[in-house]
Every structure is written in C-alpha cells, then in structure tokens.
Amino acid sequence: MLAASTRTRQLNVTCDSSVDREFFLHYSLIPSLFIILVLSFLQRREHRRQRDDTFYLLGDHFGIIMPLDFVGTFSNRWSYGIAFGATANKVMFLFSEGYQPLKVPQWAQAFVLLIGGMEVGLSYFPFFACLSSEFRLVSSILGFSYSLTWFVVTILQISQCPHGQFLGRFETLIFYWPSLLCLGFLLCRFLYMFLKALPIHLGLEPQAEEKSVLEAHQAEHVKRLLRKSCPQEREKSWFQTRVYDWDPCFQFPSRMIGTLVLASICLYLFIVIEFCVFLLVKDKLDLFEDRLQSYLTHMNETGTSTPAILQVKELISVTKGVWVVTILPASLTCVSYLFHILACYRKHMKRLWAGDKDFLPQNFQSPSSAASVVAIARYSGWQIAYILWGYLIIHVVQSLCGVMLMYSLVLPILHHQGLEMLRGLGLGVLTLSIVVGLMILQVWIAGRFFLQPKLSTADKQKPLALHNRRAFHNFNYFLFFYNVLLGLGACLSRLLISCFLGTWLIARIDRTIMQSGYEGVDMGFNAWVGMLFVDHYHTNPVLVSFCHILITSHRDRKLQKITKYWYLNQSAGPRFSARAQTRWLLLQTLINNPRLITLRKSKSGHGFRELTQILPTCSDC
C-alpha cells in the first residue's frame, strides 16, 4: 500500500514544461523596464531643472513614477491588494530562501536575497504602476498586456505539468490557483479602466475632476467631531457587538488591505508546503514502522524490546493523527489574527487621533522619526513573516498539547485503564484545589482579621492599615516556610503561562510579548508603533481637513487674481470683511468649546475679559 500511495503522488515528476515561471521571471524584466520607461516619459516633472542641465532636452518628461502611496491611498484598495496577491508565490520562494539568482559564498547570502527581492519587485512593478498612473488609457493597455502575458504563462505551466511528486494530481493547480485568480482579476480591472478611459479620451464624456486631498470618510469623521450631539445610534446586531462594528468614517489604507490579502495567500501556500513536507516525513515513518513490524514478526513478539517497539509505533501513529487534526485550529487561529490586527489598527489609530497614547509603553510614546519612516517599509513584510512563523509555532504547540491529551485521557480509555486514569486525574484536581484554596484562605484571613475596619460604609474595601499586629506576625512567621514550597509551584506556573502566551501570541505584531521595560527588544512591536505614528501624522482627518481648506482657499485666491473681472461674479448680498468673519467664527468656536478660553494667547487682557463676560450670556447662541 505504501508503494501504491507513493506511486500515486509521483505522477509527473519528470515533466518538462515549455515555459518555466522561474526562467520567465528574468526575461520579464525587459517588458517591465519598457512599461516603466513609457509611464515615466508620460509623467511630468513638477520642478524642472535649469536650462544648463545636461538633460535639458528631455524637458519636463521622465518624472518619477511610484507603484502606490503606502501611506495615504484609500482608493483602489482591493485592486492593489489583489496585485500584491499575484506576487504570493514569489514571496514564498523568497521566504524559503529558495530563489537565489546568483551563487555566492555563505557570507554574501544577504546581498543575494536583496538582489532577488529587487528583481521580483521590478518584475511585478508594472502591475502597481499601471494601477496608479494618471494616464488611464495608456496604463490600462500596458497593464492588460503585461497581466495577460503572466496569465498565459501560468496557464501553460499548469496545463503542461499539472501533477507533482508530493500531492499527486493537480499539485501545480493547488499551488498556483490563487496567483491565477489574482491575474484574472487584474485583467478585468485593466479592461474596466480602458472602457472608462476611452470615452473620456474621445471626448464623449467630460474629464474627471482633480482628486481632492480630503477623502470622503475623513470629511465625515470631522463632521462627526463638530456635531454638538451625536445622532441616536440604531440597535447593533450580535455580530457588531461581539465581533466587528463597521465604521463609515474610517477606511483602512491600501497597505493594510494588501498586507491582509498577501498574508492570507502566503499562509495558504505555507500550509500546503507544510502538508507536502508532512507527506514526505510520513512516508519515511511508514517505512520505519514496516521495519519495526518485520522485526516483531521475526521475533514472534517475544523479545525483550517488544513493549518499547509497540510504544514507539503507538507514538508515531498518535503524532501523525494529531498533526493532521491540528492543522485546522492552527490555521484558523492565524486567520483570526489577521482580522484582529485590522481591528486593533483601527482602535489604535482612533486613540492616537484623540490624543490618547496611554495604550503604548512610556518609551514608545515619542518614537524616532527616522525609525518610524523605516517602520512603514518594514511592517508589511514583517507582518507576513510573523504570521507564517507564528502558524508553524502554534501548530507545533497545539500538536504537543494534543499528544499530551491523547496520552492522558484517550489512550488509557482505549487500553481499558479508564479507572486508573480517573483516579489519577481526581488526585491531581484535588491537590490543585487544596493549594488554590489555601491561597484564597490566606487572603480571606488577612482581610478579616489583620485589617482595620472601614472608615465609611461607602468604602469598597478596608484601608491598608494593620490590625492585630501580634497575631499578624505569628501568621506571617508560620506561613513563611510553607510559602517557600508554594513559591516553587508559582514560579513553574509563571514559566508555563509565559511560554504558552508567548507562543500563542507570537504572530501578533500589534502586541509585545516582552516584559515591561523590555519592549524595545521586540522589533516587530517597534515596527507596529512606528507605522502607527506615520499614519497618524499623515492621515489624521483633522490635519488633512485643515490642509484641504488651505489648498482650496489658496486656489480660490489665485483664481481671483487671474480673473480680471472676478468681482462681477460675486453675489449682490451684504459683504463682510475677512477680519469680522474670522472674529465671528472665533466667538462661535469659544462658545462651543469653553475650555479653549484658558489656552488662548492674547496680547492684551481686554479682549479676553470681554469674551469671558460674553460667553456665559451666549449659551443660547
């Protein structure tokens, strides 16, 4: 049976495909560079150099193009996320250090991995550049052609070599269907962009308006802050109360959506690769079990090592079963972490917008600016790596717990030793209950006999003032020796709980697993905090709204200077000076926010005293 199963999985080991994605990756740099040059030629430079520059003949062409804004992009978020998902297979090769375009000594492996990452990034750069380009017609044609090329290459590889040596039938399809699905989505996306841009280019539809700095959800957030009374909220469902409550005034940036999509696909690929490795190890263990069985048959099960061999076979069988069963809970744990990290991102960003930094450790409340800028580049890659390694560690820990559960509960029942198992379990529970009961009894005795009575009936607890001091010192002396033994168990429980929580939360980059005072050692948490502060400083809705007001007012004044008879377009209504309007708005602001009066700086005290006298009488304004 072992030979048959192995033969079933090795259907197409020697298959030779006419197109190799690894080989095609190198040649894809040629069309990638061509697309980058075309888009760069169309991109205008904002600041032209002086005429004596060597490149003055280029004019204002060949501006710098960017794949996407990692900080402030809130449009086409899922398109960027799917584009990240198309790179998942190559990211997994980089993660396993299997993609090395150059052969160099061991000490230079870091540089080779850097070059490999740059090559993969350059190969997939056109997807992002075409999605973010302002020239929608040209970029849609180039993006569609490039996506179609990768789509055809992937289809050819799957169709010519569908099977493999680990999973057997359709192994290639199992590995590449997420990438194929992402490429198909990009094809539809670029086709939609072309159909939208073509009527505009032909003049059949008006040109799209210039994109505003202020997003719609950011404007709604500021409006919510300026409302005096919040509207009555409708009753929330069970999902909104217990799981997640959608906020229309908050949107995740493209970076977070891309991280979610890429991490999900990489986690799927990692689980498939792990299962392939498990099948390989399982075949080796099956061979080992067959040899053990042959030995038992030869010895007629009468040798002195027979019990040990039977226990080894049982351990192998239990381990294989537990490892397969724990794949599902380990994967669900990591998937839940991905969505929980998004919820924590929203919660932390809102607290930073409100000026609340108490949820951060003291030494993280003013991070370095340079470290924060680097953190925005590190976060996505580190989050994916933390999820993958976290899955493997969680899977190993859950498997160990499963083996312990099998040996402590299930196997004794199967071996007709249920009564002995229940007796031992009862003794363990009774011992633990007595120890915990004695600890609780110490607290009750201390509160009942060794604390002075409450000062008032409204107090929640007694004051921390000793009572019956002689009895207390005798109580403390005789329990000293017992607490030495109790401290040994408390120390072991501290170690076990720390290991359990540390391994369980290893994939959570938003929460440090270090002790208080050692959070700076946690590089993942450093990246998380730095990323939060970069987003806070660049996407704060109040700050963006203020910048939007400045930009629009500056543009209006510039337009008025350009227009010769601009005043003819003004309404015939009453006119107000800018100074009077500003003072009126200032008065309204101080009425709605009286606490700002004490913070306001004034040249003379007359205006301040007049406002303090006016405000109490203007409560109905």
From TrEMBL:
GO terms for cellular component: plasma membrane. InterPro entries: STRA6-like. It comes from the Eukaryota. The keyword NADP does not apply. Keywords: Cell membrane, Membrane, Receptor, Transmembrane, Transmembrane helix, Transport. Its main location: membrane. The keyword Metal-binding does not apply. This is STRA6-like. GO terms for molecular function: retinol transmembrane transporter activity; signaling receptor activity. One of its GO terms (biological process) is vitamin A import into cell.
